[in-house]
Model the fold of this input.
Amino acid sequence: MSYRLPQANGELKYRQDKSKSFRALPVDRPLEQATKILSSDEPKWIELDSENIKQISYDRAALILKVVFRNSPIEYRYYEVSKTLFENLQEADSPSAYLRRFVVPSHRVRRFQP
Done:
């Protein structure tokens, strides 16, 4: 995939990118605005009413579900999680049970220390 990247002098630079996380920008915006737009796409943390799960976050572009449990500061990242699973997790009566049943068995996970 190639895309146009605005430069400080107003010209466009074409660049190849194979990541799925790039968001196209209007070319009439200055470089400072373009940088703010790209950095503002960070997923928001959602507090859950759960005994075990403290917060969750979802990166739509990368399909990554991030989970922080109440008893540990470690962040768990589950890969290739669909938007539907994320939405169902938020609405589940027991988010912990939903996570154990539908996410943990079938998705790759990595642990990240803060």
